[in-house]
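Weekly sync notes, structure subgroup
Attendees: PM, AL, DS (notes)

Item 1: joint prediction request from the bench team. They want all two components modeled as one assembly rather than separately. Inputs as received:
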Amino acid sequence: MTASDSPRFPFRIPFFSNFWEQLRQTYKSSFFIKRRPKWNIEKEYARPDEDQYKQELHWQGFITEEYWAGDDDFNQFPLIKQDLSDLDEYLLPIFWEFNQKSKYYQNAFYKYQWIFMFGAFFTTILAVLTGYYGGLPEGNVNFFFLVADRDIYVNIFGFMTTIISAVTTYYTVLSNQGEPRKRWASYRRLAEELRMLYFRYVSRVEPFHRANRIDVLRRRVLELRGQEKENG
Amino acid sequence: MVDNPNTDMDATEYPNNPVDDELIPEPLEIPVDETTTDGTDRTVQQKRARNANIPAAPLDRKTADLLLRMYLSRRINYQTEFYQSRVREFDDNSDLMFRLGALVMSLSSLFAALSLQADSAVLRLITAILPAVAALIASFRQLYQWERQAGIYRDTVLGLAEAQLTVPDKDLWNESTGLDVYTELVNQAERVFQNEVSQWGQVAIGKPEEEAKQDAMRLFAEEYNLDIFNPDGTLDESKLGQLQHILGAGVGTPDSTIEIDYPALTQGTGATTLLPGDDELDDFSADATASPDITDPNDPTSPAG
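Output from the run, pasted for the record:
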């Protein structure tokens, strides 16, 4: 038994432990937690150490000798090893770069959209609260359990409405700069084109069915690189 | 030796070599492949050719068999699992938002009715806030378009399953299976991925479905010089109908109808074909096992984050 196998709590009440575990899993897998945009992610790809890199290759669906599930000895297949080496040299660096930029712009796009939507939502809520307290008779009023003068609440909610709408406007203007949605789509498409080239190259199908296939590969990768420039 | 006109020094006097030596390859080392073509002589060394007129070294059976297994595992199964997991997630998200939206709208109606009865400021407040919550939920549904994306991924999974029909059942595999089916499988599957990428791109850049179809038709019309658009840029449905009728006449079964493959149109003639008589369709008629896109109208691709 390993450390991870040992129970953390020797005395567990089945119903409650399952309940909390399920609640935790539901929380972690819920859309608003799992798919929330990150505040910041790196735009440039930084290649990790070799072991981590091989794992990332595997996770991305590429072929790696280390993680290949079959018991084939790759040394018996020099053609495949040579092809994988070529791809590692000419294609994969560009793929990782585009892939990272795609993630960056995707995150940027959704980040701005979430800020805009929640900003609009909270602006509406606070404006409603401002109007609500403004309509109450003068004197002390409740906000949940907090009791204060009506005008204080009106001022607080009015001020917060202004601040949040200003912040939302700022980020909405930012979101229009750089066209993150278009760039995300563009980089994703280019990365997927490279993934297609990867498997076509390994498979030796057209356009990689001639003896000059490595030259064709280099040219195609360069063409995709050129499309990146066209997209700004 | 040529002196550099911009300095007072000649080349031999440069304190540092201005060229990065790492960029200069070692002299005249001809790259070689350890190629093997017959599966037995695996130590043969062959110079890497750069001739575009000769085919690449053919695969031996063992290599083709391994490539087939790798392609099925790392390309098709990997992508299929990805699409299926995304479809499940999108369906869950779509259901969740739909139910939340319905709940909020119901509560909104309830509180509106109650506020009329009770004349309570709190009820009126809640009645005013709930539509904002409903709008937020609707915004998420609009932003992510889960149903549409799930539909694209479902089509891709079906397309990949169809491409896999090229591969016989495992019980029927023999030594030459890899060589026999590999190229056809790769071509069909990659075509599916290509179409998915183009469809997904339309979703990602936020084009409504109808607009995406119009764009596809516009590209197609330009490709073949077809006059199917009105002066205001909208699609002329009557001319489109005529075109479909003409295309339908080219199909063997008289009662068949031509479904326009909009994502395929965006790929131009290089990736797929709509017109009977084009090369790919001819290939199809020549080879009954082939399955060009005209029978697979909605292939797709693309893992996106």
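Discussion: The beta strands of chain A are 140-143, 146-149.
Action: AL to compare against the crosslinking data before next sync.
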